[in-house]
Write a sequence for this structure.
């Protein structure tokens, strides 16, 4: 069952954290809540009344607005119904298939890696840099074999992975790069927005708890016109023309050609209506989350914890997650800390149980925790605190007091 507060499955069976007025219940601060304003709601109503509710004019406008947001007209933005779909389409368009290997981090959500398996290719999981919790470029280089075709970095928590090193490795070894930017709107790397870097494709997520949301949704961004063309066709059943084209173009509306066995990955106009207004607010949302992160950093400076790494000077951290790690000197362990926070009415979570710990990945590739010492070490000590724009300053203070109460 999905928790209505944090939108995650299997969330400890807590009482409903949202009351009937859809406001945060005083008794419990959820781990995450989307911020949906009147403009989003009016736009959805407009869509519902328009008669065009699936992929159509608003999905187009959302794609154009997304490219404008990234500020690079050489990019194409392709709206999809999840980031998982976008990652799958990007790898498919790059021709990844059986016999190929794709390198990614063990410190991520399973969606990052599962798409490689959809295509019959193999996943090579590697460890993280303990300072940033992002994929370690040296570990990538060590994992390259003659079968390696692509690198799939994740901008963990909203902090850019070391893209200059990763793009350098890819260039030297002739590998493709697809960025999992599910946490990274907006994030910069050396002053440039993630989405505009020199990778082959970048994929953003608009899942309910991400930095902006369309309920479910994602965006595939690329500057490669061939990749874009293939992804657009495969997004909708491998049809040569999408439904909006067919019903608005001058040629007969009933005619189309199937050129491949494609997927059903298009984003609805209902979702795009939300996205148009969420995107317009994305920078403001980021500023609020950065403010909360700064308050946490200051408040926890004297506790036996490792606060999350900030961005490099001049760069933007999207602050999708605020991941606190308990130091050796902490009076209690991670599990007890989460229990204490729940008891104090604070929702928190763990991002993520590393992939090498899950039965499927462990057994499929014979993985051992010792092979991922940094991810394993972080996993055993980390928890994610609430960090979202609907939190008031009083909510932030409440989290701080609960953490200090548990660890002080
Ligand atoms: C949320 C998430 C995804 C999947 O996004 P969906 O839009 O839910 O498919 C992929 N990778 C990471 C790192 C995520 O956090």
């Amino acid at each position: 069952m999905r928790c209505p507060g944090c939108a995650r499955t299997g969330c400890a069976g807590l009482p409903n954290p949202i009351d009937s007025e859809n406001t945060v219940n005083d008794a419990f601060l959820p781990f995450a809540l989307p911020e949906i304003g009147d403009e989003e709601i009016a736009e959805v109503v407009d869509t519902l009344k328009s008669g065009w509710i699936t992929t159509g004019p608003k999905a187009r406008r959302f794609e154009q607005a997304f490219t404008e947001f990234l500020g690079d007209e050489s990019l194409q933005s392709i709206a999809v119904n999840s980031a998982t779909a976008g990652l799958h389409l990007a790898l498919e368009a790059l021709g990844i298939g059986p016999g190929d290997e794709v390198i990614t981090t063990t410190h991520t959500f399973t969606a990052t890696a599962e798409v490689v398996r959809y295509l019959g290719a193999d996943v090579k999981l590697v460890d993280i840099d303990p300072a940033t919790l992002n994929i370690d470029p040296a570990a990538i280089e060590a994992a390259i074999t003659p079968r390696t075709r692509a690198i799939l970095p994740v901008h963990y928590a909203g902090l850019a992975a070391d893209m200059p090193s990763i793009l350098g490795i890819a260039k030297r070894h002739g590998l493709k790069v697809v960025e999992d930017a599910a946490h990274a709107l907006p994030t910069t790397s050396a002053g440039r927005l993630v989405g505009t870097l020199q990778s082959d494709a970048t994929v953003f997520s608009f899942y309910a708890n991400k930095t902006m949301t369309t309920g479910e949704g994602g965006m595939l961004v690329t500057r490669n016109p061939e990749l874009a063309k293939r992804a657009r066709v495969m997004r909708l059943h491998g049809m040569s023309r999408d439904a909006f084209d067919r019903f608005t173009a001058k040629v007969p509306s009933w005619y189309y050609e199937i050129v491949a066995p494609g997927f059903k990955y298009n984003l609805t106009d209902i979702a795009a209506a939300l996205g148009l207004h969420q995107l317009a607010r994305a920078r403001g949302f980021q500023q609020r989350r950065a403010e909360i992160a700064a308050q946490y950093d200051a408040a926890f400076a004297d506790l036996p914890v490792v606060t999350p790494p900030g961005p490099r000077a001049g760069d933007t951290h999207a602050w999708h997650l605020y991941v606190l790690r308990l130091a050796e000197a902490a009076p209690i362990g991670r599990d007890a800390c989460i229990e204490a926070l729940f008891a104090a009415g604070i929702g928190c979570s763990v991002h993520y149980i590393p992939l090498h710990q899950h039965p499927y990945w462990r057994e499929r590739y014979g993985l051992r925790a010792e092979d991922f010492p940094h991810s394993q070490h972080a996993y055993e000590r980390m928890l994610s605190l609430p960090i979202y724009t609907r939190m008031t300053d009083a909510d932030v203070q409440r989290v701080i007091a609960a953490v200090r109460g548990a660890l002080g």
Q: What stands out?
A: The pocket of pyridoxal-5'-phosphate is lined by residues 82-84, 108-109, 111-112, 154, 180, 182-183, 205, 207, 218 (CB under 6 Å). The chain has 14 helices and twelve strands. The longest helix spans residues 282-299.
